[in-house]
Design goal:
The chain is α/β, with parallel strands linked by helices and 329 residues long. The protein is 42% helix and 14% strand. Strand 2, helix 3 and strand 3 form a beta-alpha-beta unit. It is globular, with a radius of gyration of 18 Å. The structure holds 3-hydroxy-3-methylglutaryl-coenzyme A and magnesium ion. The site of magnesium ion has 7 residues, from loops. It catalyses: (3S)-3-hydroxy-3-methylglutaryl-CoA = acetoacetate + acetyl-CoA.
Length: 329
């Protein structure tokens, strides 16, 4: 039976804002998260417990987590907030807040039986982030792929033991700013298998540079399927740097993928990927999915308003063609 439901993971508050040079006020970040919570989006990536020396913009992620625990934003669907943690130090920062508010969030077990209509307490997700090339791993994590995976093993084990969902990114799967187009899909398959065996619930495949094309997206997904990786364990994370994000989305959808990452207003870029522009805009993905008869559960008009507001707020152009069209701008 054809499954027309698509889950969109909103990465704007983390991936979208992390690269901004000017410090964005905490109140603006919280307003962004609270507004996104009202749109029907189920998962919002809200911060990163990473070194503030490496990514200063994410330095107030503890305050963000504390805020959503103390004041769960009203939402039409059960919400999950995702936070990056590259090592156990980052995870410990999250744990220390969770231990102060032990009943403020829902565990993975409690959440899994819920219907999509119930709201209430948010669930938390921890995200680790590997790379498909050694150069990108060094630039982003200051260590080799193998070392990063052994660190993630501890993070994943401890997060799962605390009954939290775990997402694992693999960046630069379709092109690397330092190594070019030739990223080996078999390498991606091996890393994804390792992360799933460690206990990750989902792998998000990042086309960090936007160098992905339709044939290479197909080649990658075919390779992962041949390696025994199930579509339901995968999410696609496209960037629109070369304008290929929706074409690649169509290929992934056709392949059977049903989870897609995007960023309101097309915000973002990776600090360790020179020249990379934004993530594909949430507005564009929602509009595209609707045009195909897919069901995202996301209110396009509301998301377009948020994209317009946040891009003005941080002094950027709105990168969403759909957002601008919907608003008549
Ligand atoms: P390092 O310098 O090798 O680490 O960095 P270290 O263990 O030597 O520690 C250095 C300092 O950082 C120490 O502080 C630690 O305490 C501190 P000092 O003694 O100098 O004062 N530290 C931390 N502080 C807060 N939270 C932590 C933490 N860990 C250490 N968790 C490290 C290694 C992994 C920490 C660093 O490389 C790092 O933080 N990297 C993160 C970079 C990042 O966030 N990149 C963006 C996310 S990935 C991405 O955007 C791509 C993606 O979106 C997909 C896509 O778009 O395609 C996922
Ligand atoms: Mg991204």
């Amino acid at each position: 039976k054809f499954d027309n439901r698509v889950k969109i993971v909103e990465v704007g508050p983390r991936d979208g804002l992390q690269n901004e040079k000017k410090s964005i006020p905490l109140a603006t970040k919280i307003e962004l998260i609270e507004r996104l919570a009202k749109t029907g989006l189920q998962t919002i990536e809200a911060g990163a417990f990473v070194s503030p020396k490496w990514v200063p913009q994410m330095a107030n992620s503890s305050e963000i987590l504390e805020h959503v625990l103390k004041n769960p934003p009203p939402s039409p669907v059960p919400l999950t907030f995702s936070f990056l943690a590259p090592n156990t130090k980052g995870l410990d920062s999250a744990f220390s807040l969770l231990s102060q508010h032990p009943t403020a969030f829902e565990t993975e077990t409690a959440r899994s039986g819920k219907s999509s209509q119930e709201g209430g307490k948010p669930a938390l997700e921890i995200a680790v982030f590997a790379a498909a090339t050694e150069s990108f791993s060094q630039k982003n994590l200051n260590c080799s792929i193998d070392t990063s995976l052994s660190r993630f093993q501890d993070v994943i084990q401890q997060a799962k033991a605390a009954n939290l969902r775990v997402r694992a990114y693999i960046s630069v799967v379709l092109g690397c700013p330092f190594e070019g187009y030739d990223v080996d899909p078999h390498r991606v398959a091996t890393i994804a298998t390792t992360l799933l065996e460690m206990g990750a619930d989902e792998i998000s495949l990042g086309d960090t540079t936007g160098m992905g094309t339709a044939p290479r997206t197909k080649e990658l997904l075919t390779c992962l399927s041949s390696a025994g990786i199930r579509n339901e364990d995968l999410a696609m994370h496209f960037h629109d740097t070369y304008g290929q994000a929706l074409v690649n989305t169509a290929v992934a959808l056709e392949h059977g993928i049903r989870t897609f990452d995007s960023s309101v207003g097309g915000l973002g870029g990776c600090p360790y990927s020179p020249g990379a522009t934004g993530n594909v805009a949430t507005e564009n993905v929602v509009y595209f999915m609707e045009s195909l008869g897919m069901d995202t559960g996301v209110d396009l008009d509301r998301v377009a308003d948020i994209g317009d507001w946040i891009t003005r707020e941080i002094g950027k152009g709105n990168d969403s063609a759909v957002g601008k069209a919907v608003l008549g701008a």
